[in-house]
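re the bet — no i am not wrong, look at it urself. input seq straight from the record:
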Amino acid sequence: MKKFPNTFLWGGAVAANQVEGAYLTAGKGLSTSDVQPQGIFGPLVERTENDFCIKDIAIDFYHQYEKDIALFAEMGFTCLRTSIAWSRIFPLGDEVEPNEEGLAFYDRVFDEMVKYNIRPIITLSHYEMPYHLVTEYGGWGNRKTIEFFEHYARSVFQHYKNKVKLWLTFNEINMSLHAPMTGVGLAGERTQSEIYQAIHHQLVASARVVKACHQIIPDAKIGNMLLGGLVYPLTCKPDDVWEAMNENRKWLFFGDVQCRGQYPSYMLRYFKDNHIDVVITDEDRQALKQTVDFVSFSYYMTGCITADKEEYEMKRGNILSMVPNPYLESSEWGWQIDPKGIRIVLNLLWDRYQKPLFVVENGLGAIDNVTPEGEINDDYRIQYINDHLVQIGEAIEDGIDVMGYTSWGPIDLVSASKAEMSKRYGFIYVDRDDQGKGSLERKRKKSFYWYQSIIQSQGELLR
Protein backbone atom coordinates (compact mmCIF):
# COMPACT_ATOMS: atom_id res chain seq x y z
CA MET A 1 0.00 0.00 0.00
CA LYS A 2 1.24 3.49 -0.79
CA LYS A 3 1.61 5.90 2.08
CA PHE A 4 -1.27 8.24 2.73
CA PRO A 5 -0.56 11.99 2.34
CA ASN A 6 1.36 13.59 5.19
CA THR A 7 -1.58 15.93 5.78
CA PHE A 8 -3.97 12.98 6.32
CA LEU A 9 -5.50 13.03 9.82
CA TRP A 10 -5.70 9.75 11.75
CA GLY A 11 -7.93 9.28 14.77
CA GLY A 12 -11.22 8.14 16.22
CA ALA A 13 -14.71 9.49 16.88
CA VAL A 14 -16.98 9.48 19.93
CA ALA A 15 -20.06 11.41 21.07
CA ALA A 16 -20.67 13.19 24.35
CA ASN A 17 -23.88 11.34 25.19
CA GLN A 18 -22.29 7.93 24.57
CA VAL A 19 -19.06 8.35 26.56
CA GLU A 20 -19.19 11.22 29.05
CA GLY A 21 -21.71 10.15 31.63
CA ALA A 22 -21.82 12.72 34.47
CA TYR A 23 -25.60 12.90 34.13
CA LEU A 24 -26.75 16.37 35.27
CA THR A 25 -23.28 17.01 36.78
CA ALA A 26 -21.94 20.57 37.12
CA GLY A 27 -25.09 22.26 35.88
CA LYS A 28 -25.77 20.03 32.87
CA GLY A 29 -29.41 20.05 31.81
CA LEU A 30 -31.64 17.20 30.73
CA SER A 31 -31.07 16.26 27.08
CA THR A 32 -33.15 14.34 24.58
CA SER A 33 -30.63 11.51 24.88
CA ASP A 34 -31.21 11.38 28.63
CA VAL A 35 -34.91 10.66 28.14
CA GLN A 36 -34.21 7.88 25.61
CA PRO A 37 -32.53 5.33 27.89
CA GLN A 38 -33.13 2.45 25.44
CA GLY A 39 -31.50 4.26 22.51
CA ILE A 40 -32.62 6.38 19.60
CA PHE A 41 -35.49 4.05 18.67
CA GLY A 42 -36.66 3.53 22.24
CA PRO A 43 -39.54 5.27 24.00
CA LEU A 44 -39.31 8.57 25.82
CA VAL A 45 -39.33 8.21 29.61
CA GLU A 46 -39.85 10.63 32.44
CA ARG A 47 -36.65 10.55 34.49
CA THR A 48 -37.08 10.06 38.23
CA GLU A 49 -34.66 10.31 41.12
CA ASN A 50 -32.36 7.27 41.43
CA ASP A 51 -33.62 5.63 38.22
CA PHE A 52 -31.14 3.90 35.90
CA CYS A 53 -29.88 4.73 32.44
CA ILE A 54 -26.60 3.23 31.26
CA LYS A 55 -25.71 6.55 29.61
CA ASP A 56 -25.82 8.34 32.99
CA ILE A 57 -22.30 7.02 33.56
CA ALA A 58 -21.57 5.61 30.09
CA ILE A 59 -17.81 4.96 30.20
CA ASP A 60 -17.21 7.91 32.58
CA PHE A 61 -15.15 9.88 30.06
CA TYR A 62 -16.12 12.99 32.02
CA HIS A 63 -13.84 11.86 34.86
CA GLN A 64 -11.42 9.66 32.89
CA TYR A 65 -10.74 11.76 29.79
CA GLU A 66 -7.07 12.24 30.70
CA LYS A 67 -6.49 8.50 30.77
CA ASP A 68 -8.42 7.95 27.53
CA ILE A 69 -6.74 10.76 25.62
CA ALA A 70 -3.35 9.41 26.72
CA LEU A 71 -4.31 6.04 25.22
CA PHE A 72 -5.38 7.73 21.98
CA ALA A 73 -2.04 9.52 21.90
CA GLU A 74 -0.26 6.20 22.45
CA MET A 75 -1.94 4.91 19.28
CA GLY A 76 -0.64 7.97 17.46
CA PHE A 77 -3.87 9.89 16.92
CA THR A 78 -3.41 13.22 15.15
CA CYS A 79 -7.11 14.09 15.61
CA LEU A 80 -10.09 13.15 17.75
CA ARG A 81 -13.68 13.78 16.85
CA THR A 82 -16.04 14.32 19.75
CA SER A 83 -19.05 16.51 20.48
CA ILE A 84 -20.05 19.20 22.91
CA ALA A 85 -23.18 18.34 24.86
CA TRP A 86 -25.39 21.34 24.07
CA SER A 87 -27.20 20.83 27.39
CA ARG A 88 -23.89 21.12 29.26
CA ILE A 89 -23.40 24.65 27.89
CA PHE A 90 -27.03 25.79 27.89
CA PRO A 91 -28.90 23.43 30.25
CA LEU A 92 -32.34 24.56 29.09
CA GLY A 93 -31.26 25.77 25.66
CA ASP A 94 -32.89 29.20 25.85
CA GLU A 95 -30.62 30.91 28.41
CA VAL A 96 -28.72 34.09 27.62
CA GLU A 97 -25.52 33.17 29.48
CA PRO A 98 -23.74 29.82 29.13
CA ASN A 99 -22.99 27.47 32.01
CA GLU A 100 -19.40 28.27 32.99
CA GLU A 101 -18.81 24.83 34.50
CA GLY A 102 -19.72 23.22 31.20
CA LEU A 103 -17.39 25.50 29.26
CA ALA A 104 -14.61 24.73 31.75
CA PHE A 105 -14.98 20.98 31.27
CA TYR A 106 -14.40 21.19 27.52
CA ASP A 107 -11.53 23.60 28.11
CA ARG A 108 -9.86 20.83 30.08
CA VAL A 109 -10.61 18.21 27.43
CA PHE A 110 -9.32 20.33 24.55
CA ASP A 111 -6.23 21.35 26.50
CA GLU A 112 -5.47 17.69 27.12
CA MET A 113 -5.82 16.92 23.41
CA VAL A 114 -3.59 19.82 22.43
CA LYS A 115 -0.98 18.59 24.93
CA TYR A 116 -0.57 15.49 22.74
CA ASN A 117 -0.85 17.38 19.43
CA ILE A 118 -4.28 15.85 18.80
CA ARG A 119 -6.51 18.17 16.77
CA PRO A 120 -10.08 18.45 18.09
CA ILE A 121 -12.85 17.92 15.53
CA ILE A 122 -15.98 19.08 17.32
CA THR A 123 -19.60 18.33 16.47
CA LEU A 124 -22.01 20.95 17.77
CA SER A 125 -25.04 18.65 18.00
CA HIS A 126 -24.61 14.88 18.08
CA TYR A 127 -27.92 13.10 18.70
CA GLU A 128 -28.88 15.35 21.61
CA MET A 129 -30.38 18.74 22.36
CA PRO A 130 -31.73 20.32 25.57
CA TYR A 131 -34.98 18.55 26.35
CA HIS A 132 -36.51 21.82 27.51
CA LEU A 133 -36.48 23.00 23.89
CA VAL A 134 -38.65 20.00 23.02
CA THR A 135 -41.16 20.35 25.83
CA GLU A 136 -41.46 24.15 25.73
CA TYR A 137 -40.93 24.98 22.06
CA GLY A 138 -41.54 21.81 20.05
CA GLY A 139 -37.90 21.15 19.15
CA TRP A 140 -36.76 21.97 15.65
CA GLY A 141 -40.38 22.27 14.58
CA ASN A 142 -40.21 25.78 16.03
CA ARG A 143 -38.32 28.42 14.06
CA LYS A 144 -37.09 29.92 17.37
CA THR A 145 -34.77 26.93 17.77
CA ILE A 146 -32.64 28.33 14.93
CA GLU A 147 -31.84 31.34 17.12
CA PHE A 148 -31.16 29.20 20.19
CA PHE A 149 -28.75 26.99 18.24
CA GLU A 150 -26.95 29.93 16.65
CA HIS A 151 -26.54 31.56 20.07
CA TYR A 152 -25.08 28.31 21.44
CA ALA A 153 -22.74 27.95 18.47
CA ARG A 154 -21.53 31.55 18.63
CA SER A 155 -20.88 31.13 22.35
CA VAL A 156 -18.66 28.07 21.91
CA PHE A 157 -16.94 29.50 18.81
CA GLN A 158 -16.00 32.58 20.81
CA HIS A 159 -14.87 30.58 23.83
CA TYR A 160 -12.83 27.91 22.01
CA LYS A 161 -11.66 29.90 18.99
CA ASN A 162 -8.00 29.44 19.92
CA LYS A 163 -8.34 25.70 20.56
CA VAL A 164 -10.69 24.26 17.93
CA LYS A 165 -10.25 24.86 14.20
CA LEU A 166 -12.34 22.00 12.77
CA TRP A 167 -16.09 21.96 13.39
CA LEU A 168 -19.15 19.98 12.28
CA THR A 169 -22.71 21.25 12.59
CA PHE A 170 -25.13 18.29 12.99
CA ASN A 171 -24.26 14.62 13.26
CA GLU A 172 -25.81 12.48 10.51
CA ILE A 173 -28.30 15.24 9.72
CA ASN A 174 -30.30 13.00 7.35
CA MET A 175 -31.03 10.58 10.20
CA SER A 176 -33.98 12.81 11.15
CA LEU A 177 -35.99 11.09 8.41
CA HIS A 178 -35.73 7.80 10.34
CA ALA A 179 -35.69 8.94 13.98
CA PRO A 180 -37.30 12.41 14.21
CA MET A 181 -37.13 12.62 18.00
CA THR A 182 -33.39 12.08 18.07
CA GLY A 183 -32.71 14.22 15.03
CA VAL A 184 -35.06 17.17 15.31
CA GLY A 185 -36.78 16.79 18.68
CA LEU A 186 -40.20 15.79 17.32
CA ALA A 187 -41.92 13.35 19.67
CA GLY A 188 -44.70 10.96 18.66
CA GLU A 189 -46.19 10.38 15.24
CA ARG A 190 -45.54 13.26 12.86
CA THR A 191 -46.52 14.11 9.29
CA GLN A 192 -43.94 14.40 6.54
CA SER A 193 -44.68 18.14 6.40
CA GLU A 194 -43.83 18.51 10.09
CA ILE A 195 -40.63 16.49 9.77
CA TYR A 196 -39.37 18.32 6.68
CA GLN A 197 -40.24 21.70 8.20
CA ALA A 198 -38.11 20.84 11.23
CA ILE A 199 -35.33 19.62 8.92
CA HIS A 200 -35.55 22.89 7.01
CA HIS A 201 -35.08 24.87 10.22
CA GLN A 202 -32.02 22.74 10.98
CA LEU A 203 -30.57 23.32 7.50
CA VAL A 204 -31.04 27.07 7.89
CA ALA A 205 -29.42 26.92 11.33
CA SER A 206 -26.48 24.98 9.91
CA ALA A 207 -25.90 27.62 7.22
CA ARG A 208 -26.14 30.48 9.71
CA VAL A 209 -23.68 28.75 12.01
CA VAL A 210 -21.23 28.22 9.12
CA LYS A 211 -21.31 31.97 8.53
CA ALA A 212 -20.82 32.64 12.25
CA CYS A 213 -17.84 30.30 12.39
CA HIS A 214 -16.17 32.12 9.50
CA GLN A 215 -16.77 35.45 11.24
CA ILE A 216 -15.52 34.42 14.68
CA ILE A 217 -12.73 31.97 13.73
CA PRO A 218 -11.45 33.04 10.28
CA ASP A 219 -8.82 30.28 10.20
CA ALA A 220 -11.32 27.51 11.05
CA LYS A 221 -13.07 25.07 8.72
CA ILE A 222 -16.61 23.89 9.30
CA GLY A 223 -18.35 21.01 7.58
CA ASN A 224 -21.61 19.10 7.52
CA MET A 225 -21.99 15.44 8.44
CA LEU A 226 -24.05 12.92 6.50
CA LEU A 227 -25.07 9.36 7.19
CA GLY A 228 -23.71 7.66 4.07
CA GLY A 229 -26.72 5.49 3.28
CA LEU A 230 -25.69 4.18 -0.14
CA VAL A 231 -28.05 1.70 -1.80
CA TYR A 232 -27.57 -0.29 -5.01
CA PRO A 233 -30.34 -1.34 -7.40
CA LEU A 234 -31.12 -5.00 -6.72
CA THR A 235 -31.16 -5.71 -10.46
CA CYS A 236 -30.40 -3.85 -13.69
CA LYS A 237 -34.14 -3.49 -14.27
CA PRO A 238 -34.68 0.24 -15.03
CA ASP A 239 -37.36 0.49 -12.33
CA ASP A 240 -34.84 -0.76 -9.77
CA VAL A 241 -32.21 1.70 -10.97
CA TRP A 242 -34.73 4.54 -10.70
CA GLU A 243 -35.77 3.37 -7.22
CA ALA A 244 -32.12 3.33 -6.09
CA MET A 245 -31.50 6.81 -7.45
CA ASN A 246 -34.49 8.19 -5.55
CA GLU A 247 -33.51 6.37 -2.37
CA ASN A 248 -29.99 7.80 -2.53
CA ARG A 249 -31.39 11.26 -3.15
CA LYS A 250 -33.10 11.08 0.25
CA TRP A 251 -29.73 11.42 1.98
CA LEU A 252 -27.86 13.30 -0.74
CA PHE A 253 -30.52 16.03 -0.55
CA PHE A 254 -29.00 17.24 2.72
CA GLY A 255 -25.57 17.49 1.15
CA ASP A 256 -27.01 19.20 -1.90
CA VAL A 257 -28.51 21.98 0.22
CA GLN A 258 -25.44 22.38 2.44
CA CYS A 259 -22.92 22.27 -0.43
CA ARG A 260 -24.85 23.94 -3.26
CA GLY A 261 -26.77 26.48 -1.21
CA GLN A 262 -30.29 25.77 -2.40
CA TYR A 263 -32.99 23.13 -2.59
CA PRO A 264 -32.56 20.79 -5.59
CA SER A 265 -35.39 20.65 -8.10
CA TYR A 266 -35.99 16.93 -7.50
CA MET A 267 -36.79 17.71 -3.85
CA LEU A 268 -39.24 20.46 -4.73
CA ARG A 269 -41.06 18.03 -7.00
CA TYR A 270 -41.02 15.40 -4.23
CA PHE A 271 -42.68 17.91 -1.90
CA LYS A 272 -45.26 18.74 -4.54
CA ASP A 273 -46.08 15.14 -5.46
CA ASN A 274 -46.40 14.08 -1.83
CA HIS A 275 -48.32 17.17 -0.64
CA ILE A 276 -45.52 18.16 1.74
CA ASP A 277 -45.78 21.80 2.77
CA VAL A 278 -42.56 23.50 3.92
CA VAL A 279 -42.43 27.21 4.67
CA ILE A 280 -39.24 28.60 3.10
CA THR A 281 -38.81 32.36 3.38
CA ASP A 282 -36.67 34.63 1.22
CA GLU A 283 -34.47 35.15 4.27
CA ASP A 284 -34.06 31.38 4.52
CA ARG A 285 -33.02 31.14 0.88
CA GLN A 286 -30.43 33.82 1.39
CA ALA A 287 -29.07 32.10 4.50
CA LEU A 288 -28.75 28.73 2.73
CA LYS A 289 -26.31 30.24 0.23
CA GLN A 290 -23.63 30.00 2.94
CA THR A 291 -22.15 26.58 2.14
CA VAL A 292 -19.90 24.30 4.17
CA ASP A 293 -16.12 24.10 3.74
CA PHE A 294 -15.95 20.31 3.59
CA VAL A 295 -18.17 17.24 3.67
CA SER A 296 -17.87 14.63 6.40
CA PHE A 297 -19.81 11.40 6.57
CA SER A 298 -20.29 8.10 8.34
CA TYR A 299 -20.04 4.84 6.46
CA TYR A 300 -20.84 1.41 7.83
CA MET A 301 -22.75 -0.56 5.22
CA THR A 302 -24.70 -0.59 1.98
CA GLY A 303 -27.84 -2.40 0.90
CA CYS A 304 -30.08 -2.93 -2.08
CA ILE A 305 -33.44 -1.53 -3.15
CA THR A 306 -36.04 -2.70 -5.63
CA ALA A 307 -39.26 -1.38 -7.08
CA ASP A 308 -40.82 -4.77 -6.32
CA LYS A 309 -40.74 -4.34 -2.55
CA GLU A 310 -43.57 -6.77 -1.87
CA GLU A 311 -41.49 -9.63 -3.32
CA TYR A 312 -38.50 -9.21 -1.00
CA GLU A 313 -37.97 -9.12 2.75
CA MET A 314 -36.56 -5.82 3.99
CA LYS A 315 -34.06 -6.06 6.84
CA ARG A 316 -32.84 -3.31 9.15
CA GLY A 317 -29.14 -2.60 9.38
CA ASN A 318 -27.85 0.51 11.11
CA ILE A 319 -30.99 2.71 10.98
CA LEU A 320 -31.92 1.87 7.39
CA SER A 321 -34.16 -0.87 6.02
CA MET A 322 -32.80 -2.46 2.86
CA VAL A 323 -32.94 -5.64 0.80
CA PRO A 324 -29.85 -7.70 1.71
CA ASN A 325 -27.12 -7.87 -0.93
CA PRO A 326 -26.52 -11.56 -1.77
CA TYR A 327 -22.86 -10.83 -2.53
CA LEU A 328 -22.02 -9.46 0.92
CA GLU A 329 -21.47 -10.91 4.40
CA SER A 330 -23.07 -9.38 7.49
CA SER A 331 -21.91 -8.48 10.99
CA GLU A 332 -23.43 -9.97 14.16
CA TRP A 333 -25.93 -7.10 14.10
CA GLY A 334 -26.94 -7.69 10.48
CA TRP A 335 -24.97 -4.81 8.99
CA GLN A 336 -23.66 -5.83 5.59
CA ILE A 337 -19.90 -5.44 5.13
CA ASP A 338 -18.94 -3.63 1.92
CA PRO A 339 -15.46 -2.06 1.87
CA LYS A 340 -15.69 -1.19 -1.84
CA GLY A 341 -18.77 0.87 -1.02
CA ILE A 342 -16.71 3.47 0.86
CA ARG A 343 -14.67 4.11 -2.30
CA ILE A 344 -17.91 4.43 -4.26
CA VAL A 345 -19.31 6.94 -1.74
CA LEU A 346 -16.09 8.97 -1.79
CA ASN A 347 -16.17 9.13 -5.58
CA LEU A 348 -19.88 9.95 -5.59
CA LEU A 349 -19.51 12.84 -3.14
CA TRP A 350 -16.35 14.18 -4.79
CA ASP A 351 -17.94 14.16 -8.25
CA ARG A 352 -21.06 15.82 -6.86
CA TYR A 353 -19.53 18.55 -4.67
CA GLN A 354 -15.81 18.97 -5.39
CA LYS A 355 -15.23 19.72 -1.71
CA PRO A 356 -12.73 18.02 0.64
CA LEU A 357 -14.15 14.86 2.20
CA PHE A 358 -13.64 13.45 5.70
CA VAL A 359 -14.57 9.91 6.82
CA VAL A 360 -15.57 10.66 10.41
CA GLU A 361 -17.26 7.37 11.32
CA ASN A 362 -16.50 3.81 10.24
CA GLY A 363 -16.10 0.70 12.34
CA LEU A 364 -17.35 -2.74 13.31
CA GLY A 365 -19.66 -3.39 16.23
CA ALA A 366 -19.02 -6.88 17.60
CA ILE A 367 -19.07 -9.00 20.74
CA ASP A 368 -15.52 -9.14 22.11
CA ASN A 369 -14.36 -11.94 24.37
CA VAL A 370 -11.58 -11.60 26.92
CA THR A 371 -9.30 -14.67 27.06
CA PRO A 372 -8.20 -16.23 30.38
CA GLU A 373 -4.91 -14.39 29.81
CA GLY A 374 -6.78 -11.07 29.65
CA GLU A 375 -6.34 -10.56 25.89
CA ILE A 376 -8.90 -9.43 23.30
CA ASN A 377 -7.99 -10.83 19.90
CA ASP A 378 -10.30 -8.87 17.61
CA ASP A 379 -8.91 -9.92 14.23
CA TYR A 380 -12.37 -9.41 12.69
CA ARG A 381 -12.18 -5.70 13.56
CA ILE A 382 -8.66 -5.42 12.18
CA GLN A 383 -9.80 -7.02 8.91
CA TYR A 384 -12.84 -4.75 8.63
CA ILE A 385 -10.96 -1.51 9.18
CA ASN A 386 -7.99 -2.62 7.08
CA ASP A 387 -10.24 -3.36 4.11
CA HIS A 388 -12.03 -0.02 4.38
CA LEU A 389 -8.79 1.93 4.74
CA VAL A 390 -7.40 0.18 1.65
CA GLN A 391 -10.41 1.46 -0.31
CA ILE A 392 -9.92 4.96 1.11
CA GLY A 393 -6.34 4.76 -0.12
CA GLU A 394 -7.65 3.81 -3.56
CA ALA A 395 -9.99 6.82 -3.47
CA ILE A 396 -7.03 9.07 -2.72
CA GLU A 397 -5.28 7.55 -5.74
CA ASP A 398 -8.45 8.37 -7.70
CA GLY A 399 -7.58 12.00 -7.03
CA ILE A 400 -10.05 12.64 -4.22
CA ASP A 401 -9.14 15.09 -1.45
CA VAL A 402 -9.69 12.98 1.67
CA MET A 403 -8.86 14.95 4.83
CA GLY A 404 -8.69 12.03 7.24
CA TYR A 405 -10.26 9.03 8.94
CA THR A 406 -11.73 8.72 12.44
CA SER A 407 -12.89 5.24 13.39
CA TRP A 408 -16.07 4.76 15.39
CA GLY A 409 -15.42 4.48 18.25
CA PRO A 410 -11.80 4.04 19.28
CA ILE A 411 -12.89 3.08 22.79
CA ASP A 412 -15.91 0.96 23.71
CA LEU A 413 -18.97 3.13 24.30
CA VAL A 414 -22.73 2.94 24.70
CA SER A 415 -24.27 2.23 21.30
CA ALA A 416 -26.70 4.81 19.96
CA SER A 417 -29.34 2.51 18.51
CA LYS A 418 -30.11 0.35 21.58
CA ALA A 419 -27.88 1.74 24.35
CA GLU A 420 -25.79 -1.43 24.55
CA MET A 421 -22.24 -1.92 25.82
CA SER A 422 -22.06 -5.44 24.39
CA LYS A 423 -21.91 -4.03 20.86
CA ARG A 424 -18.27 -3.01 21.00
CA TYR A 425 -16.36 -0.91 18.47
CA GLY A 426 -13.21 0.07 20.30
CA PHE A 427 -9.50 -0.55 20.06
CA ILE A 428 -9.75 -0.11 23.84
CA TYR A 429 -11.93 -2.42 25.90
CA VAL A 430 -14.01 -0.96 28.73
CA ASP A 431 -15.12 -3.31 31.50
CA ARG A 432 -18.83 -2.58 31.63
CA ASP A 433 -21.84 -4.65 30.54
CA ASP A 434 -25.35 -3.86 29.36
CA GLN A 435 -26.63 -3.86 32.96
CA GLY A 436 -24.06 -1.24 33.94
CA LYS A 437 -21.88 -3.67 35.90
CA GLY A 438 -18.09 -3.63 35.67
CA SER A 439 -15.00 -1.86 36.88
CA LEU A 440 -14.72 0.56 33.92
CA GLU A 441 -11.10 -0.61 33.58
CA ARG A 442 -9.52 0.15 30.20
CA LYS A 443 -7.67 -2.60 28.33
CA ARG A 444 -5.84 -2.52 24.98
CA LYS A 445 -7.17 -4.93 22.35
CA LYS A 446 -5.08 -6.54 19.61
CA SER A 447 -6.50 -3.92 17.22
CA PHE A 448 -4.96 -1.17 19.40
CA TYR A 449 -1.46 -2.21 18.40
CA TRP A 450 -2.49 -2.83 14.80
CA TYR A 451 -3.99 0.66 14.38
CA GLN A 452 -0.91 2.11 16.06
CA SER A 453 1.26 0.45 13.40
CA ILE A 454 -0.96 1.69 10.57
CA ILE A 455 -0.71 5.28 11.79
CA GLN A 456 3.04 5.01 12.33
CA SER A 457 3.49 3.72 8.76
CA GLN A 458 1.13 6.38 7.36
CA GLY A 459 -1.00 3.55 5.95
CA GLU A 460 1.85 1.73 4.26
CA LEU A 461 1.29 -1.46 6.30
CA LEU A 462 -2.28 -1.89 5.06
CA ARG A 463 -2.82 -5.11 3.13
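see?? The chain has one domain: 9-456. told u. also Residues 9-456 form a domain with the TIM Barrel fold (CATH 3.20.20.80). so pay up
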